[in-house]
């Protein structure tokens, strides 16, 4: 790995040199004594990180910050400030600094912060790269919004979904999207339609679970006047409305037997008959269906027609659960952070290391939808410069409300938990919590203080949780 570049700005030579000596093993260091030198270096060198004193003889570190952040390739900025002038540091963060450290400096803290800043930068870069990739794809396929770009994720599983969607979209093939609730089935249906070349506004969505069988039938196929009690007007159904476009039948596992027969006919003959009419009407409609049930097992139970299943299952898209692709959690979180910060008129704040670890290790039974809501909660609840565990919903919030310091970088035990999750299919959250705590204790030779720190919770919370969980009959 090539090392990251760091620019140290301080008007005191001893601080500059001391920091350079301490950090040059880890970073490619540059030093500057004033704004002019600093900006010169920022323009000529590929600087990743800027560590600057807020008070520079004759200059203000705040001005340097403003100028540095206005450059085409701004660095991630960390401010150094004298103990007791935290207000100014907070003001610097409001202006876009990433974080601050107080003087006298604790070198471990400085290094920890620089490493974290670097990680936040690489995340940002990932996001930008992803946006560019998606933009390219979009340009190549000549599509606009709601295409693949709305599908965030670069895990192999999501890349496969992206490939599948691009390949199948321009065809007429019927697509069956299966997956747990909240995995993005509807998003995929939209993406397929947007990339299909069919008129963008001709996507009709019908939720098959929301209507009674009779209403569903007339919703889909329309009816003639007087076809049944209450049918006072002729009605054009969704299939006819979607002619030339796409129909998305959500919750397809819920449709009754009679409608299943009619649907089979549409797929086979490409004609529909309105309820109360024998005259077939030709329709050219691309059919996409989705379900969070296993359609094949509904077939074996006799609840779904096998012939219809085969017609619908021409191309099957199986959406991965979020816990099976935890590498996407961070990327999705960043996107949602941005979305909800903009929506709530708040600046985009970073997530603390512990919050990130917790987000990655949680099993997300509600998948992406649940993560999205959790991040919205975090954005709304945080008035601090960072979003910590205690800002997230209670099921993620195992801390006492006090952000712990020095975030230990120990995602390992979370990773282990994740793996065991996948292999054991364990979704009892209390059991998971207990196992996580037990692992932390094993890891720290039963030292409760260290275990609590490892988990990002206070010792008191750990004691309480252990007591509660050990008495929980379900665990
Ligand atoms: N890969 C993704 N990238 C960005 N947002 C996503 C992704 N997957 C899902 N979402 C978001 O998560 C939420 C749920 O997605 P969606 O409605 O498509 O799920 P679903 O599988 O249809 O769920 P259900 O079975 O409950 O209907 C939406 O807000 C959607 O925008
Ligand atoms: Mg859905």
Q: Any chance you could write out the topology, listing elements then pairs?
A:
Blueprint: E1 5-9, H1 13-23, E2 28-32, H2 35-44, E3 49-53, E4 55-56, E5 59-60, H3 61-69, E6 76-82, H4 86-94, E7 99-103, H5 107-141, H6 156-168, E8 175-178, H7 185-194, E9 203-207, H8 213-221, E10 222-223, E11 235-236, H9 238-241, E12 246-250, H10 257-269, E13 271-272, E14 281-282, E15 286-291, H11 295-300, H12 306-312, E16 315-318, H13 327-343, H14 353-361, H15 367-381, H16 412-424, H17 429-443, H18 448-455, H19 459-470
Parallel strand pairs: 1-2, 1-3, 3-6, 6-7, 8-15, 8-16, 9-12, 12-15
Antiparallel strand pairs: 4-5, 10-11, 13-14
Helix pairs in contact: 2-3, 5-13, 10-12, 13-15, 14-16, 17-18, 17-19, 18-19
Adenosine-5'-triphosphate (ATP) binds at residues 151-153, 179, 181-187, 292, 332, 368-369, 372.
Structural notes for this entry:
With 475 residues, the protein is an alpha/beta fold. The protein has 3 domains: 5-124, Response regulator (Rossmann fold); 145-318, P-loop containing nucleotide triphosphate hydrolases (Rossmann fold, 3-Layer(aba) Sandwich), CATH 3.40.50; 323-470, Helicase, Ruva Protein, domain 3, CATH 1.10.8. It is 47% helix and 13% strand. The protein is built from 19 helices and 16 strands. The strands form 5 sheets. Strands 2-1-3-6-7 form a 5-stranded parallel beta sheet, with helices on both faces. It has a 5-stranded parallel beta sheet with strand order 9-12-15-8-16. It has a two-stranded antiparallel sheet with strand order 4-5. Helix 13 packs across helix 15 (367-381), helix 14 (353-361) packs parallel to helix 16 (412-424) and helix 18 (448-455) packs across helix 19 (459-470). The longest helix has 35 residues, at 107-141. The two termini are 44 Å apart. Mean pLDDT is 83; it is low at 141-145 and 399-427. The protein binds adenosine-5'-triphosphate (ATP) and magnesium ion (MG).
């Amino acid at each position: 790995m090539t090392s990251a570049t760091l620019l140290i700005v301080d008007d005191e030579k001893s601080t500059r040199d001391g920091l350079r000596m301490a950090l040059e093993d880890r970073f490619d260091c540059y030093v500057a004594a004033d704004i002019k030198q600093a900006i010169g270096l920022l323009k000529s060198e590929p600087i990743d990180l800027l560590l600057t004193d807020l008070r520079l003889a004759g200059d203000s570190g705040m001005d340097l910050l403003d100028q540095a952040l206005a450059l085409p390739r701004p660095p991630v900025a960390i401010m150094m400030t004298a103990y007791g002038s935290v207000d100014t540091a907070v003001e610097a963060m409001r202006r876009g600094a990433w974080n601050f450290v107080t003087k006298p400096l604790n070198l471990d803290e400085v290094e920890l912060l620089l490493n974290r800043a670097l990680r936040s930068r690489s995340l940002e870069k990932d996001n930008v790269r992803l946006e560019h990739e998606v933009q390219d794809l979009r340009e190549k396929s000549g599509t606009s919004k709601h295409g693949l770009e709305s599908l965030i994720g670069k895990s192999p599983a999501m890349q496969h979904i992206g490939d599948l969607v691009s390949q199948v979209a321009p065809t007429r093939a019927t697509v069956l999207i299966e997956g747990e609730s909240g995995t993005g089935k509807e998003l995929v249906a939209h993406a397929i339609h947007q990339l299909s070349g069919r008129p963008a506004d001709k996507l009709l969505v019908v939720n098959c679970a929301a209507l009674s069988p009779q209403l569903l039938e007339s919703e889909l196929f329309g009816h003639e006047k007087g076809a049944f009690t209450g049918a006072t007007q002729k009605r054009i159904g969704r299939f006819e409305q979607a002619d030339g476009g796409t129909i998305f039948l959500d919750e397809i596992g819920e449709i009754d037997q009679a409608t299943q027969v009619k649907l089979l006919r549409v797929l086979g003959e490409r004609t529909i008959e309105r309820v109360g009419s024998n005259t077939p009407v030709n329709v050219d409609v691309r059919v996409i269906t989705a379900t969070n049930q296993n359609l094949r097992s509904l077939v074996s139970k006799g609840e779904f027609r096998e012939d219809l299943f085969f017609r619908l299952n021409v191309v099957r898209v199986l959406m991965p659960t979020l816990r099976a692709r935890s590498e996407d959690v961070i990327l999705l979180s960043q996107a949602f952070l941005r979305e909800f910060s903009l929506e709530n008129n708040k600046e985009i704040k970073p997530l603390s290391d512990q919050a990130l670890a917790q987000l990655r290790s949680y099993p997300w039974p509600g998948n992406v939808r649940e993560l999205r809501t959790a991040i919205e909660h975090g954005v709304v609840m945080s008035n601090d410069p960072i979003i910590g565990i205690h800002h997230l919903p209670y099921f993620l919030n195992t801390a006492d409300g006090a952000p712990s310091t020095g975030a230990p970088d120990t995602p390992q035990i979370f990773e282990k938990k994740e793996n065991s999750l996948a292999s054991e299919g364990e979704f009892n959250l209390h059991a998971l919590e207990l196992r996580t705590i037990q692992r932390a204790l094993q890891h720290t030779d039963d030292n409760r203080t260290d275990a609590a720190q490892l988990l990002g919770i206070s010792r008191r919370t750990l004691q309480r949780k252990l007591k509660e969980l050990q008495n929980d009959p379900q665990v």
